Amino acid sequence: MKVLGIESSCDECAAAVVEDGTRILSNVVATQIPFHAAYKGVVPEIASRKHTEWIYTVVKEVLDTAGLKPGGIEGVAAASRPGLLGSLIVGLSFAKSFAWARGIPFIAVDHMLAHLYASQLDFGDRTAACSSAGADKPAYPFLGLLVSGGHSIICRAGAFDEVAVLGTTMDDAVGEAFDKVAKHYGFGYPGGAVIDRLAGSGDADAFRFPVPNLHKGEHRYDVSYSGLKNAVINQLEQFRTRPSRGGEAEKADIAASFQKTAVTILLRALFNAAEDTGLATVVAGGGVAANSCLRALLAGRKDLRCFFPPPEFCGDNGAMIAGIGCRYLERGDFSPLSTTAQARVTDFKKKRP
Ligand code: KG4
Ligand code: ZN
Predict the structure, then answer these.
(1) 246 in helix, strand or coil?
(2) What are the structural domains of the chain?
(3) In this structure, what is the dihedral angle of CA atoms 134, 135, 137, 141, given to the nearest 10 degrees?
(4) Which terminus in the chain has less CB density within 10 A, N or C?
(5) Strand 106-110 relative to strand 75-81, pairing
(6) pLDDT given at position 249
(7) How confident is the model over 234-276, as pLDDT tens digits?
(8) What pLDDT, on a 0 to 100 scale, did the predictor assign at position 126?
(9) What is the pLDDT of residue 77?
(10) Where are the alpha helices (DSSP H) in 31-84?
(11) What is the number of the ligand closest to the CA of 315?
């Protein structure tokens, strides 16, 4: 069963064809980064225009690479939530039109559930390098760690479409903290990958940044990043008033110290959840799951079986959408052509008191 997956929730215009839920036949990601870099962040208006401009070419390329005509596709899946509305609508409308024109099922997919599904895809020779459990695929139930530019979610996944949120962020998402810190320091955009790279030559113990005190009671699995983000940005002000500091070495030290603290916050909540639920399998997904510090510390926990997709499948891609789309298709679970986009999913964020 071959499914076309379309992903356009943010600044990646992406599509893929996946067979039987695991085999990636082709995968194309057209990144808009150069168009947003000048603004040091995603400009929603530019993002939706670029998706409109590129979506046909991206889908055509993905079909050509797979050696398929539109008639070889048995279902079309697209991310319908959460994300930038104007961007989501482009991929969603294209997918619905494709499905209607071909007379095949359309499947609306939750972007975060798709990130969690990414570890079920087949990565061939690279599969073993994506886990601390050899070449096995993660078996349900497991603990999910969904970390991206808009979300930080710790959940119990009972099935590909059954997720109970245990903890989320109280304020900023972890990826957002990486992006904001990088923006203030002028490290580059997008911030996560730049900080990860810079941190490689820095001393992670050079600066001591605050870890929020959320380890008790109802917030045992929650995280918070605004305190850390502000502390790191405030450090920049100190550099400005003391010009002797703030050179290249200090920048690397800042990046490494921030990264280590950001990951520590995440892992403390995750390990609390592992301890309380007794779940010893952890599956990470989302752009921040590409982080080398996070991956190293997770892989180092010998009492847990940890899975993370190859770095390029942690970020937004069409394969995760097509893969989970296959699962819905297998059980005849289709979406109506009236399905619309949704910017937010209420369960994925904490309500402010
Ligand atoms: O999943 P994703 O591609 O898009 C969203 O759904 O948001 O995640 C993007 C986020 C950005 O905040 C980006 O800075 C972060 O993932 N990111 C990283 C790394 N690579 C991307 N954060 C930390 N370390 C990385 N290596
Ligand atoms: Zn994403």
Answers:
(1) coil
(2) 2-123+313-348 (3.30.420.40), 142-308 (3.30.420.40)
(3) -20
(4) C
(5) parallel
(6) 84
(7) 998 887 776 555 577 899 999 999 999 999 999 999 999 999 9
(8) 84
(9) 98
(10) 33-37, 44-66
(11) 1
Closest residue CA from atom 23 of ligand 1: 192
- What's the gap in Å between 67 CA and the centre of ligand 1? 31
Q: What is the pTM of this model?
A: 0.96
Q: Residue 24: which residues within 8 A CB-CB, separation 6 or more?
A: 16, 17, 18, 121, 122, 319, 323
User: In ligand 1, which atom is closest to the CA atom of 293?
Assistant: 24
Counting as low any pLDDT under 70, the low residues of the chain are 242-246, 350-353
Q: What angle do CA 317, 322, 324 make, to 5 degrees?
A: 105
Q: Give me the pLDDT at residue 212, please.
A: 92
Contacts of 5 (CB under 8 A, 6+ apart): 15, 16, 17, 18, 76, 77, 78, 109, 318, 319, 320, 321, 322, 323, 325
Nearest to 258 by CA among 177, 188, 171: 177
Averaged confidence pLDDT in the chain: 94
- Asked if 326 contacts 1 with a C-beta cutoff of 8 angstroms, the reply is yes
Identity of the amino acid at 241: T
Q: What is the pLDDT of residue 218?
A: 85
> If you take atom 8 of ligand 1, which residue's CA is the nearest one?
287
Which residues are near ligand 1 (CB < 6 Å)? 10, 148-150, 175, 178-179, 190-193, 196, 286-288, 290-291, 315-316
From CA 212, how far away is CA 79, in angstroms rounded?
33
